[in-house]
Structures are given as structure tokens and as C-alpha cells.
Amino acid sequence: MKAFLKRFPLTYTFLYWYDYARRACNTVFRPEASTREEFLKKCGYEPDLKAPKTYNEKLQWLRLYWRDPLAEKCADKVAAREYVAGKGFSDRLVPQMRVFDRARDVDAAWDSLPERFVLKGAHGSGMNVLCADKSKLDRKRTVALCRRWQRTNYWLDGGEWVYRNVPRRIVLEKYIETDDGLPPRDYKIYCFHGEPRSVMVATGRNEGRLCMDYFTPEWEHMPFKRHNPNSPHTPEKPPLLQEMLAMARVLSAPFPAVRVDLYCEKNKIWFGEMTFFPAKGMHAFEPFEYDLLFGSWLDMDRVPGYR
């Protein structure tokens, strides 16, 4: 449906901002009620916010009631670099070539941009443009997309408070080269109280069939699905897995739960981002028992302000 509506730009734009306004009203005026409604629709069960047991339930409690200034800093794709460098991983930061305060600055600098680059919105999730060949990238559409990013308050859009005060900037990063010429494979490490518990690998983006597979830290496949199917070909264990787990352990130590996203290409680890509420904490587990398993790793009694 989304692809169909994009054929009609005015209609698509109107519906986009109408839905954005609806979500913003829910964030400001009825955060808990709207959370219950959306959670039931997406996860298939009523969330218990007073005594949460599952991973998805506990993320809702954190999203609604937990606050931490350091988490806000780490959600900002510009400010997070200072945190990562301070933990001793400055050599694993993807070179940031420029930070634009306005979308029109991207347009003004277009001719000076390298042939391969990445653009990201610093203030949210899913705001990415991977450019492997600038000559094939639509300049007008790319600048319009950056403009939309900057008009979007990601806190209002989804109620994720870590983005509330993040400046709406556009980041230009170096393109990570890979042996096969495809986008770098990222490893999303789910950490609880500073301990990595599961690693998710996404494959098939370029083929139009996104698959997600979850592994234990020992690289044993975990037989469950969340939103996307498992890959028909089990992803291989990355050569620097132990180093990635060690890095995630250090970066996640101050937080009750966070996903640390890393890249591993050409025997080099790169920092991606830190995600505190993956999928807004509303991706159902199949089977359900893994929602409980992930939830068991998050000890709410160790969370400031709980009870």
C-alpha cells in the first residue's frame, strides 16, 4: 500500500503528516492509553505495565517512565560519538565528514559530496541513505527526504523520549567498503545490565526479502521469529564476534537494556548506533516463550524509579 501511495505524492504527503499528527497527539495527551492500544494490536496481548514480565512489556515501562540523560546522549548519532570515544573505541567510529544543520545545506554541498557516502538523521531511527554511486542517486528526492527527517520530531512520532531533545541534524558519513560491494552486514547486540544476551543479524535487504536471525553469544541459533522470517541460509559466525561482544559489554554497562549495533567488515569493527527501544518494543515473538526469555534478562528491580 505504501509503495502504491507514493505514486501520488500529494496524497502520500497529506496522509503521512496526518498520521504523524495523530501519533503526536497520542504521545502528548494519552501516552499510556495509546501504548496499550498499539501494543495489543501489534503484540497480540494486553500489556501489564504494573508488573511487566515480557521483554516487550518491560520496554513499554522503560519508554513511558524511565529517564536517563546519558541514554538521551547515546541516542544522538552525533553526541554518542563522544561517549563511544570516551570508552576507548575512537578507532571504531565511522568517519563523520560533515554535520548539516539544514536540509538545504545538503543540497548546497551536493557537488562536493564524495561518490560514495551515507546520510543519516541524527535524531531518530530508520533515517538512512546509503549511496554507492552518487551519479545514480536522485538529488531532489534525497534532499526532500532530508527535509522530511528534519521536520519530524521522533519523540512526538513514536513516544521514544530519548530523542526528545536531540538536535535535528543530518550526518554525512564515510561509506563502509565491503568485499562483495553490498551494504555492510550489521550485528545488533541485545544487552541487559551490561551483558550481551543475543545477537541479531539482518540479511536479504538488497534482494527485497529482509530476514532476521538471532543467536546466543556462543553463536547458537535461537529458533524464533520477530516480524521478519529467518534466513534460509544461516548467517556465519563473524570472525570478530568476541571483540564485538566485549565492546557491547562496555558500552551497555550503564543501562538496564540497550541494543548496540555494530558492523564488521574486512576484519574491522565499526560502531553503528545504540537503540533503546527497538521497534518501539512492539515486535511480537514467535513463539511467545522468547518474549518471556528476553524479559527475564531485564531485572526491573535494578531500574531506577521502578516501584
How would the blueprint of this fold be written?
Blueprint: H1 2-5, H2 9-29, H3 31-43, H4 55-65, H5 69-75, H6 80-86, E1 96-100, H7 103-108, E2 117-121, E3 128-131, H8 139-151, H9 154-158, E4 170-174, E5 186-192, E6 195-203, E7 211-215, E8 221-222, H10 241-252, E9 257-265, E10 268-275, H11 289-296
Antiparallel strand pairs: 1-4, 2-3, 2-4, 5-6, 5-9, 6-7, 7-8, 9-10
Task: Give the overall shape.
Answer: globular
Strand order in the largest sheet? 8-7-6-5-9-10
Distance between the termini: 43 Å
Rg, nearest Å: 19 Å
Number of domains: 3
Per the CATH scheme, the topology name of the largest domain is: D-amino Acid Aminotransferase, Chain A, domain 1
Which H/E pattern describes the elements? HHHHHHEHEEHHEEEEEHEEH
What attributes does this structure have?
single chain, 307 residues, alpha+beta, D-amino Acid Aminotransferase, Chain A, domain 1, Dna Ligase, domain 1, 3 domains, six-stranded antiparallel beta sheet, four-stranded antiparallel beta sheet, 11 helices, 35% helix, 19% strand, globular
Question: Your description of this structure?
Answer:
This protein has three domains: 1-38; 47-92 and 180-307, D-amino Acid Aminotransferase, Chain A, domain 1 (2-Layer Sandwich); 95-175, Dna Ligase, domain 1. Helix 2 crosses helix 3 (31-43) and helix 4 packs across helix 11. It is globular, with a radius of gyration of 19 Å. The model has no long low-confidence stretch (mean pLDDT 93). With 307 residues, the chain is an alpha+beta fold. The strands form two sheets. A six-stranded antiparallel sheet has the order 8-7-6-5-9-10. Strands 1-4-2-3 form a four-stranded antiparallel sheet. 35% of the residues lie in helices and 19% in strands.
